[in-house]
């Protein structure tokens, strides 16, 4: 015992003992600083939201479980650094512990930053929500905090209405927020004499700025405005010391809602600026790959059981609500997307108010379609007939099954019990457009790394009623919120008889993509001889049915045809 006491008092052994204690405390901080509530694996202060879901920005104080760890973590750093100098053999012996400590220190710094952001938001009356990013949330093993996902609601406190210009006072608190993301601020938060690995990690973190918009009748304008706003915020981060080559920005338009666009409150939440920071480019790619939107947050989407969905389809009913008064005629001078939106409103209204095309029910059978020969005889020259029947209501809804919905704020979604997602027909929808992710310094576009199975650029072909319809260059990135390239739609009229070498109609068409456990809905807004098309591809298959909506002799028709992928 006296020998052990003497050894403990010697300088080298005391420092070595302190190293062990320091590592243990730091590892404890790494494991307990983000206490989780099974099964959601979210920070402990979010527990109340598991029982009562409010909104994204109803965020409790993240400082309460954080402040008591600050002194402990700083002491752990000092102990680790001093002990690290004992001798090479001891350094080698503790190398793994040092690596774990670095992770713990970065995690603690994220908690400290989260608290500071909350305090800035409270002082400047901002609505701010934050969630931790862990390796597990990025699709790899590990539950320690490696970054933050921060969202700031823009209730006229950041940008002027319909402009990328900042409102008075916004630059002040954006400067304060940006200052928390500089390498200098992160290194300073690591305490005295931080390990070299922690310093290197702090100097090479990546920041993504995303500006979001509410759903609008002009999605192209929304995408361009949101990109301009994201660039403004990204430049403020660079001006405050975040290296431009480590900053990425994106205008996501209305493609990544966090609340329902069907309500004014939801649209307010969707107008926001998002700040994501992760350790590396690889982690940023992982984050983007897992990003997804909940289709229920777009208008025209509901949740129902499979039985309810089948009943809706059988009756020709649409899951969307309709206004009581007929909408005004479509403005021929409006933009393409505005005309689509106005036409969708009129089609939805006609679903319940049409006398010429009653909805098919058990008591009221649908009118029999004209024989193909009789219809063909009445077609004007150049008209396209895809072999359908007069449209009943707005069209046929599509059941996706459970959704591929992933978010750092997943506690909001997982706490809500929902059935299968039912997507309204394309006649009640309009394109949603996202911009690319760009590097602030170089302007380089971050490429998409993965595609949805079946949509990797190969053509999809069908021959409805003797016409050939080809969807060319159909590519879908796995990440929601990244641009989906417009495919080229080639239509060969009466191909079965004439085998035209050139398409009689061809254009690049915007698309929306919705994914669920049953499959992928590839929605194409064609125009011309075909209003739009809903191609549903079941999971792990190379073919799928499509509902084709098209005008013919002053009426709207719907046809069903099977598309197959050509390898």
UniProtKB/TrEMBL annotation:
InterPro entries (UniProt xref): Bact_OuterMem_StrucFunc, Gly-zipper, OmpA-like, OmpA-like_sf
**Low complexity: bias regions:** 311-324
Q: Where is this region: Disordered?
A: 310-333
Concerning CDD domains, the annotation shows: OmpA_C-like (cd07185)
Q: Which residues form the OmpA-like domain?
A: 146-281
What's this protein's name? Porin
């Amino acid at each position: 015992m006296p020998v052990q006491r003497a050894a403990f008092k010697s300088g080298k052994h005391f420092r070595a003992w302190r190293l062990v204690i320091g590592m243990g405390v730091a590892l404890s901080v790494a494991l307990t600083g983000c206490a989780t509530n099974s099964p959601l694996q979210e920070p402990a202060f979010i527990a109340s939201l598991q029982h009562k879901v409010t909104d994204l920005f109803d965020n409790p104080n993240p400082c309460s479980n954080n402040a008591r760890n600050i002194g402990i973590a700083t002491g752990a750093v000092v102990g680790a650094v001093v002990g690290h100098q004992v001798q090479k053999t001891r350094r080698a012996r503790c190398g793994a512990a040092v690596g774990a400590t670095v992770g713990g220190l970065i995690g603690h710094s994220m908690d400290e930053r989260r608290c500071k952001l909350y305090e800035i938001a409270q002082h400047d009356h901002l609505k701010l929500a934050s969630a931790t990013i862990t390796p597990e949330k990025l699709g790899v093993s590990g539950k320690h905090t490696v970054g933050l996902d921060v969202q700031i609601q823009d209730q006229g406190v950041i940008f002027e209405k319909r402009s990328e210009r900042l409102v008075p006072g916004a630059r002040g608190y954006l400067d304060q927020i940006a200052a928390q993301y500089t390498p200098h601020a992160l290194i300073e938060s690591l305490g005295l004499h931080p390990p070299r690995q922690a310093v290197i990690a702090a100097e090479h973190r990546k920041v993504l700025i995303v500006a979001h918009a509410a759903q609008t009748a002009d999605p192209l304008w929304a995408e361009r405005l949101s990109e301009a706003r994201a660039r403004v915020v990204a430049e403020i981060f660079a001006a405050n010391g975040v290296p431009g080559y480590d900053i990425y920005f994106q205008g996501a338009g209305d493609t990544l809602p966090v609340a329902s666009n069907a309500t004014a409150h939801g649209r307010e939440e969707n107008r926001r600026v998002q700040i994501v920071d992760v350790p590396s480019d690889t982690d940023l790619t992982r984050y983007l790959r897992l990003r997804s939107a909940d289709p229920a947050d777009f208008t025209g989407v509901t949740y129902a059981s499979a039985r309810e969905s089948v009943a809706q389809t059988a009756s020709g009913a649409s899951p969307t609500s309709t206004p009581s008064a007929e909408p005004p005629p479509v403005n021929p001078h409006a933009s393409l997307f505005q005309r689509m939106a106005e036409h969708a409103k009129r089609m939805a209204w006609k679903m319940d108010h049409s006398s010429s095309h009653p909805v098919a029910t058990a008591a009221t059978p649908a009118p029999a379609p004209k024989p193909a020969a009789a219809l063909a005889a009445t077609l004007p020259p150049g008209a396209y007939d895809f072999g359908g029947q007069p449209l009943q209501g707005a069209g046929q809804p599509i059941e996706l099954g459970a959704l591929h919905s992933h978010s750092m704020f997943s506690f909001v979604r997982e706490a809500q019990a929902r059935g299968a997602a039912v997507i309204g027909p394309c006649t009640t929808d309009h394109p949603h457009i996202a911009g690319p992710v760009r590097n602030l310094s170089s302007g380089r576009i971050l490429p998409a790394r993965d595609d949805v199975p079946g949509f990797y650029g190969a053509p999809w072909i069908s021959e409805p009623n003797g016409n050939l319809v080809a969807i060319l260059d159909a590519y879908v990135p796995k990440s929601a919120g990244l641009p989906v390239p417009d495919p080229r739609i080639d239509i060969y009229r009466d191909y079965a008889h004439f085998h035209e070498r050139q398409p009689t109609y061809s254009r690049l068409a915007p698309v929306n993509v919705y994914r669920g456990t049953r499959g992928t809905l590839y929605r194409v807004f064609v125009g011309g001889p075909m209003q739009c098309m809903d191609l549903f591809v079941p999971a792990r298959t190379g073919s799928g049915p499509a509902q084709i909506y098209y005008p013919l002799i002053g009426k709207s028709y719907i046809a069903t045809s099977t598309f197959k992928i050509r390898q």
